[in-house]
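Minutes, project check-in

Agenda point 3 was the complex the collaborators sent over. CS summarized: two entities, 650 residues total, and the question is how they sit relative to each other. Sequences were read into the notes so everyone works from the same version.
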Amino acid sequence: MKQSVTLGKVTKFMGLGFISTFKDLFTGKLEKEDYKAFLRKVIVPVASVLLFLGLWHLGANALYNVEAEFRIEKALNEQGQVAADEMAACIASGDTSCQPNTLPSPSQVWTSFQSLLNDHALISADKVAFKEKTAALNEKRVAEGKDPIVYTGRPSFVDQIFRSLKTVFAGFFLALLIAVPLGIFIGLSPTLKSAFNWFIQIFKPVSPVVWYLLVFMIVKTLLIDSSEDSSFSISFIAVGLCSMWATLVNTSMGVSSVDKDYINVAKVLKLGNFQKVFKIILPSSLPLIFTGLKITLSVAWMVLIAIELLAQSPGLGLFVWEEFQNGANDSNAKIIVAMFVIGIIGFLLDRLMLSIQNWVSFEKTDAI
Amino acid sequence: MAYLELNNVYKTYGTDENATEVLSNINLSIEEGEFVAIVGFTGSGKTTLVNLINGLLEPTKGEVLFKGKPVEGTSHERGVIFQNYSLLPWLTVEQNVLMAVKEAFPKREKAVYKRKAAYYIDMVGLTPAINKLPKELSGGMRQRVAVARALSMKPDMIIMDEPLGALDALTRGTLQDQILNIWGKDKRTALLITNDVDEGIYMADRIIPLRPGPNATLGPEFKIDIERPRDKTAMNDNPNYKKTRNAIIEYLMDIGEERKSQVSEAFVLPDLAPKDFVNQFR
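CS then shared the predicted structure for the full assembly.
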């Protein structure tokens, strides 16, 4: 039995069905009645994006004017008419020293995005050059039994994204390794359930910040002898502990609520306990487990930013915080760039989990 | 001694005041190689009776004997076909059957399992769908997988709990023939639970009505003296068939009447009239 894999199937499977509509548009495969669907699926979202950008632009302009007027007024009140005129001229000239600091407009954000990419290209080139320069020396050092010299320049924005992804996946796998087995045991045994229930109920609503502090207290002491930077371990453990609850609750619920018919089948076939768990209970609770994992991943991504910020662990969270502290002219625009990147990556992670969930689930779920 | 025996079996759910006696004083004996049908209304405790026999439930009072020994838990000797198929939706047709084969015949080679599974899947005519998932099959095909799964364990007795209840008349007919064919080959003992009198008459040697619960108990048995193989159309003219069918239906109708008269206690409705909202605001 062979099934052909088409673009339409793949994109629909991943919950990105609008891509195939686009393809149909360019290949001229759209029928007359498809135009209605096309209008709804493509035109309406595009229009709403444009509307959003327009409102944003207007809002940013208004805020800019408020800020500029305030500065001129302040100069007038404190230093007199001459200073006020100077300030007005300075703002109008676009000089960076006196620009109003407020919500950036879409075009400013776009410029910042490009400058961040340029910055990444520069840093990457620098890294390559550094590697070439130190290649011979490093070989010698390794031969002598010393550590090779590594690049210690500042990370680029793209590097920060990958650091964040690394942290979030480390945290996610930690959550998976703790929550899934624990959830299975809790789901199987009512005794364990009552033993753990208070624990789950109390710790589930705890804020990410508090989790971070708790993990910090423990890991700091555990790694007291180590000279290594513990910020990565602290942040990924905190992310994992924060986000594992959805998986824990869903897994235990899935395991304890297996369809009675399947349990009867297990009894009639006289499956052993081990077989019953692995052949009946686990497969039938897989969809719920993956729903839990999907929530866990999105929660992990959401709390990651706050935790990186607190832990001073490199990544998008730290990037946002440093830009905020930096207060440079384009800092606000860079923060907004980071916001969009965070949102888009969060969306893609969610789709990734949805695809995996669809793949393991025996009852196909539609994309939400 | 009978192959399967139920002696004064009672089954109660719940305790104390909340207790409902579903089955009371059930006596049944089935000989080896016999095909017995139990006919009853929905909700009369048919599934409870089946679960007592296959070992999923234990009687509150009385004993269930299989080959002279009390039934303790389920056994591979009694194959069960459930009312709602109960196939595992994440396994293909072959894997569903393989699972049963592996449990019933431990420690064989993989090829042996595959051959056995293929044999039973072929028996119910599902070889073309061997790699399909249950959700890709029609109701009738699913039930045939369930039949293949139950038979693949080579049970000494096969227990069917309304196996064809959810199927349309045509599929029902073909499946009835298929089950009879398989049963005819090695004359295993069979117990069929159904709500369809015609199905019972067509398939079984004996029909026993189950009087509706609570406190359900078995009625008098009706022997079906029609030679096998039976032919559906020819059977309609058989005087024996007409007589038995009428007797059973009359009996069931009487029970129904009895039941109705029992609940004829009048409930007086409170004298309520809707408030006149319209006039109130005039």
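Noted in discussion: The two ends of chain A are 30 Å apart (CA to CA).
Follow-up: revisit at the next meeting once the mutant set is ready.
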